[in-house]
Amino acid sequence: MELKEIRAFLILAQELNFRKAAERLNITQPPLTRQISNLEHHLGIKLFTRTTRKVELTGAGVHLVAEGEKLIKASELLESELRKLSKHKSATLKIGLNRIAFHSSMPHMLSSFKEQFPNTKIEISEESDSKILSQLNKGIINIAFSQTHFKKSDIEQLVVESQQLGFIVNKQHPLSTKKSLQLKDLVGHSLVFHGKADKLGFQSEFLSLLNQSNIKVKIYYKKIHESCENLAIINKGIILSTKRMASLSTNLAFIPLRDYSPKLKIYASWKTEDQSEELKVFINFFKTDISLPSSGVGDHF
């Protein structure tokens, strides 16, 4: 199904006369007849009923008028946006990532985008969840990648990555010999969490789970100048995180949870009012560049 056939169909649907429609399209009647026949053959349904006296839309034709107009408008909008983008000698996209997003597949995706759109300058800042979301609200950055999920009418969000959560432990830690952990194995141990100000949903959900299961643990909230990985290295506690984070140091090991399968989701967040061409192109790029995770029973967070 080609756009020129849809355009021809829409003109004929307006005129209900092959001669008049052909004149508007600046073609003769035979090519118009062929385009309509090709369209009907491709769709496997009649769009018009024809007699020697009149041409009328079928039920399928009436439906295609509404949907066809949407399709043409969408194609015209896309063409306009791409033409505008091609005229940009240089555009800047400002992106904020928290530490977990920074060590996810996001940098690779950003590199791929840069290869495809070399004229777009990318500025990246690595900050805490609270800070990058504050920057997003103030318009300092165009898009944020973090673990914060919220419902706000002026913010749009999309899950761009979902990673299995487990515990990162120092290889000298008593739990490091285990191949997997159960919640009861955590009793009495110290857990290192991000600061409360970061408001990370997966931490809150896990704490609630521990309370419901009556699992007593010690919680250490890292300070602003501290990193969770370094605290694990010095055996301050174990970290609820992803396997990729354990690869940051040879002193750390990742142990999955056996009786619980939480997921850490990375959200892309952007302001609905931000209609910049570079942001639209970027969002469409990562929508096709990533495999979006499916939700299921194990998708707790």
From TrEMBL:
InterPro entries: LysR_HTH_N, LysR_subst-bd, WH-like_DNA-bd_sf, WH_DNA-bd_sf. SUPFAM superfamilies: Periplasmic binding protein-like II (SSF53850), Winged helix' DNA-binding domain (SSF46785). The keyword Signal does not apply. GO terms for cellular component: protein-DNA complex. Keywords: DNA-binding, Transcription, Transcription regulation. Residues 1-58 form the HTH lysR-type domain. Belongs to the LysR transcriptional regulatory family. This is HTH lysR-type domain-containing protein. It comes from Halobacteriovorax marinus.
